[in-house]
Design goal:
The complex is a heterodimer of chains A (297) and B (280). Chain A is mainly α. Chain A contains 13 helices and no strands. The longest helix of chain A has 32 residues. In chain B, 73% of the residues lie in helices and 0% in strands. In chain B, helix 7 runs antiparallel to helix 10 and helix 10 runs antiparallel to helix 13. Chain B is globular and about 75 Å long. Classes of the chains: A mainly alpha (297), B mainly alpha (280).
């Protein structure tokens, strides 16, 4: 009755505003990025078709190294977020007084503007006066002032730590929700059978939160791959390219140096990697939906 | 009982929570302490947590040394608010369409929207820059608002769709029998019932818009008066030797609005964020 064919255009009409906005701001730019990547577009009036020249240039340069660095950066950042997130969720799931309060305290790094959190970290990494170097000296870890952002390796680690700080709250809260949805009956049944706490965690909690861990790792990988603000504010990709990821390199090429064509070719490679992540994500979602037959979502 | 911990387990749990929360909160504490120090107190070695002459002086002096500070804050709030309104205007009808109607291409379209989440703004920055240039929107609020809204649509649709799907269909059928049009039903029957869900989406969108005001403003805007707080502070303090105590004080004042929203609405926000983690 309700779903008569009389106005089958109605749903499309409902989608119109959202479609219009995303077509202009996302779909067309995506298409345009592909097109530009085959041109020599730059800060000049005309642009010429150059075929695969931009891609050849990229791969004969240092871009393969940048790709590798991006994946190493992403791997450590996501792994640490998941490890710290699972540990945090376990701790906040423990039935001790005050846990509701502790849960509230987890979210601030995620709530505040990313850039402002990074300003604070920029200060903490300061070698002369910053907290980390200062406390390190008091504890005798460093002999003198240590400038974290001045060396390639420590700058690389520093940007990862800041990214973990910003990403951990969401991972923690997400996994905590997954843990809370596990029926207490399971734990009690296992407990009656004499299973210890660690055994129950390994055999009940961990398997049941595994789908949430998988989803979150993947989403987190995608966000980390796209991460721009943190590195840009802390190091702008330096020192000497030590923290230049694909996104940073694309931005520098296109916006700082006005080489749109070469920048677009880099962006296309990013999109290709992201598509692989996305395909995997949709595969996970569709498997999860098929798993729960009565699930309306 | 099963949940009884031994004393050493309780000590271990609290110690673990303490370490975890120290990592999360130490930067805020450090920022606050720095903001209380006079500038010569900041540049003193060896490092100590409490230094001499701590006061709230910086919170007064920063308004005159960063003359546009109040402007940056209002810009941030304004941009996030308009982003939220524009996004809701797109999200509500779209989420309703996906929640209620079976139509050709609905699965493909929904997947398409979700795929947008995978592509960050930075990847598309080149054509977006040219687009804003050609539309004459560079150095206007719109250059920061429109992309911000577009990128927040997918998550919003995803969150609201599952909420709308739970509203009983009978309500619409009753309105239909009474002769109400479809759009009227959406406006007068569905939206009023869905207000709690819409609030969750609105708050999540607002916080995300407030948190992510860096890239678009940095790239599309060079009019200092229009800068949101993060970019305003980034450029102001990038130009000269950093006055760290004022930067920290301004940063802390700048995060107050979202922190307050979060504290009052954290139950809703957490419920919205974790919707996907729990199977119902």
């Amino acid at each position: 009755m309700f779903n008569t064919g009389r106005d089958r255009f109605f749903p499309y009409m409902l989608l119109l505003p959202a479609l219009a906005l995303t077509l202009v701001i996302v779909a067309w730019p995506l298409f345009e990025t592909f097109r530009l990547s085959f041109t020599d577009a730059a800060l000049k009036p005309d642009e010429n078709w150059v075929g695969w020249a931009n891609y050849e240039k990229i791969f004969s340069g240092n871009f393969p190294e940048v790709i590798l660095r991006t994946f190493v950066w992403m791997f450590w950042s996501v792994t640490l977020k998941m490890v710290v997130g699972i540990a945090g969720a376990m701790l906040l799931n423990a039935a001790v007084p005050g846990r509701a309060f502790f849960r509230v305290l987890v979210m601030p790094p995620w709530v505040i503007p990313i850039a402002i959190g990074v300003f604070i970290w920029g200060w903490m990494y300061n070698g002369q006066w910053g907290m980390i170097s200062g406390v390190g000296q008091l504890l005798g870890i460093f002999d003198g002032p240590f400038e974290f952002l001045a060396y390639r390796d420590t700058a690389f680690i520093a940007t990862i730590v800041t990214d973990v700080w910003i990403g951990t709250p969401l991972v923690t809260i997400y996994l905590l929700a997954a843990m809370q949805s596990i029926s207490p009956d399971l734990h009690e049944a296992a407990w009656v059978d004499g299973a210890g706490r660690w055994y129950r965690f390994r055999r009940i909690t961990l398997p049941l939160i595994l789908p949430a861990v998988a989803t979150m790792s993947l989403l987190s990988s995608i966000w980390t791959f796209n991460s721009f603000d943190i590195i840009w504010i802390l190091t702008e990709g330096g020192p000497r390219g030590g923290t230049t990821t694909m996104i940073i390199d694309t931005y520098k090429t296109a916006i700082s140096r006005f080489r749109y064509g070469e920048g677009a070719a880099r962006a296309v490679l990013i999109v290709l990697f992201l598509s692989a992540f996305a395909a995997f994500y949709f595969y996970l979602i569709s498997r999860a939906t098929r798993g729960g037959a009565n699930n309306d979502q | 009982m099963i949940n009884k911990y031994r004393w050493y387990e309780i000590v271990g749990i609290y110690a673990g929570i303490a370490v975890f929360l120290t990592f999360i909160l130490a930067p805020f504490l450090e920022a606050f302490l720095v903001s209380l120090r006079p500038i010569e107190g900041i540049f003193s070695a060896p490092y100590s947590i409490i230094t001499e002459n701590m006061s709230f002086e910086t919170y007064i002096s920063m308004w005159s040394s960063v003359p546009l500070l109040w402007r940056y804050m209002l810009n941030s709030l304004f941009i996030s608010t308009v982003v939220t309104l524009l996004a809701l205007f797109c999200i509500i009808p779209a989420a309703y369409a996906f929640a209620r109607f079976k139509f050709k291409g609905s699965n493909g379209l929904l997947a398409g929207f979700l795929a947008i989440n995978m592509v960050g703004g930075a990847v598309l920055i080149i054509p977006l820059y040219k687009l804003m240039l050609n539309l004459g929107l560079l150095n206007t609020y719109w250059a920061m608002i429109i992309p911000g809204a577009a990128f927040s649509i997918p998550t919003g649709i995803w969150l609201l769709r599952s909420y709308l799907a739970k509203i009983p269909r009978e309500l619409e059928e009753a309105a239909w029998v009474d002769g109400a049009g479809r759009l009227y039903t959406l406006r007068r029957v569905i939206i009023p019932i869905a207000i709690p869900g819409i609030v969750v989406v609105a708050v999540a969108t607002f916080i995300a818009a407030y948190a992510q005001q860096f890239l678009f403003a940095l790239t599309f805007n060079s009019t200092n008066e229009l800068n949101p707080l993060p970019v305003g502070l980034f450029q102001f303090f990038g130009r000269q030797t950093v006055v760290w105590n004022e930067l920290m004080a301004a940063s802390l004042i700048g995060i107050l609005p979202v922190l307050l929203i979060y504290i009052f609405l954290q139950r809703f926000i957490v419920a919205g964020l974790t919707a996907g983690a729990v199977k119902e």
